[in-house]
Amino acid sequence: ETSVSDRFYNCPQPASHLVLPMQKALHEATVAELGLAAAPASFDVAYVQFAHPVINESDLRASAVVLFLVIAACIPLVMITNALVGEKEAKLKHMLDVVGVSSLAQFVSWWMTLTLLTLLSVVVLMIALAVFQFPIVVRNDPALLFVLLLIHAFALVSTGFALAAPFNAVKPARTVGQIYIALFAISASAIALVLELDNDVAKQWRPILNFVPPAMLAKGINDLATAAMQRSTTSGLSWADRTSNATYYPLADVYGWLVL
Predict the structure, then answer these.
(1) Could you tell me the pTM of the whole model?
(2) What is the Rg, in whole angstroms, of the alpha carbon atoms belonging to the chain?
(3) How far is it between the farthest Cα atoms of the chain?
């Protein structure tokens, strides 16, 4: 019998702290009751694992967190694209051009509005993760995930402008945005693995994935989730660990590529 409760909640292992002491006391009482020993019996109990091959552990929760957060962080892309293309479809942009509103003023107003909305979505997501005690927030320094999501949110606004540019109708733009999210949601864990490997395939893909915001997001979230699930440590990553938490693409590098 095993339990992971001791990893997060400081609960003792039931096998070593409850079951074995109870069995020991039961045997000693049975021997004393039946008079099988001249003196009170005392058993020495050893708690060891059975012999087994080397086990490579992988925590499915880490992969699930990567998938969940990549989807949650990318969903605003569809709303951004819809809003920008919807303005063109309704001819509002043309009307603003006619009355003399410069394209720069339109761009800045949209960028500020969308940036504030994505910032709000990041704050709400962080609050939800903290309220429900997700280990990625509880065991790591929350600033690491907050900065990661925040920089990605800013990059997402620029991605929304790029996706909206070729479209004049909302429906095809929405479809492209949904495909974009689904593509990176499905491949998030694989992308995070590729960015960490040291082989020819990884070296070929890195220059491309460097400029793809969801790829960098998946890598950062995977590192934080993996550190939060480690059994051998009492806590995850601190802010000081951001430059040395991985051989390739530590969090500091992930932040830098998202800014670019």
Answers:
(1) 0.71
(2) 27
(3) 106
